Each structure stands twice: as structure tokens, then as C-alpha cells.
# Entry
Amino acid sequence: MTVKTRYRVAGISLLVGLLVLIRYFEHKLFYDPLIHFFYSDYLNGGVPNFETTRLLLNVVFRYFLNSLISLGIIYIAFFDRNILKFSVLLYSLLFFLCFPVFMFLVFTIENENFLALFYVRRFLIHPVFIIILLPAFYYYRLLERRKKQL
# Structure
């Protein structure tokens, strides 16, 4: 393993560690009363009282924090500005599609919307998109290298 590869692995490991720390300390770092709500018997219980503005701002902050770290992982993994720009576009698109849906679900929360709220919220607060993008860009890189070899 070359020195350059070691630095890349160390950088990616550090950033993944940051994502783990965000998840581990989520109760202390972010205001999210829905965490306890979804851990409990939410289908039979009532909706907890929460500060809507504070909840929405914390979801936005957590999304952007996770996105920045995920974009760092993508950049270190591929060192390609075009891939990074495309990733920024995809993360922005995801945010502008999911966040209004999340807001709508929060403002109109009812029993039949609990699962939709749960999954949209999960997609916003967890770095799920990186799991899709890394293999996709890796495969793209593999195809590009094969084309050059032909």
C-alpha cells in the first residue's frame, strides 16, 4: 500500500468515525423528540409535544453536517471534482425534495402518516445516500478505466 493510499484510507476512516460520533451523540447534539417517539409504541401512543421550528432547524443542521462529511468521503475516495460537483447536486436535490415532504408530514402529523414521517426523517438525518453513491461512482470509475484500456 502506497503512502498516498494510506492517507486516503486514514482520511476516509476519520470521516466515517465522525459520522459514527454524530450518530452516537445524537441525543446530546440535536433536538429530536421524534427519536423517543419512534422507539416507543408510536402506533398506539399520541404525538409528543415538540417545538416545530427547533425540530426543523436541527434536521436541516444534521442533514448538512452529514452531507459535508459524506462529500468529504466522496472527494477523498475519488479525488475528482466532477464527481464532487455531481454529488453536491444530488445531495441538494435530495434535500429540496425530501425536506418539504418532511415539513408537510410534521405539520399534518396523523396516525396514518407516522411511517412516512419516520422514513423521510430517517433519510434526512442519516447519511444513507453515501451508501448508494460510493458503489455507483466506483462502478463508474471502473467503466471509465475499461474504456481507456480498449
Summary: The chain has one domain: 3-149.
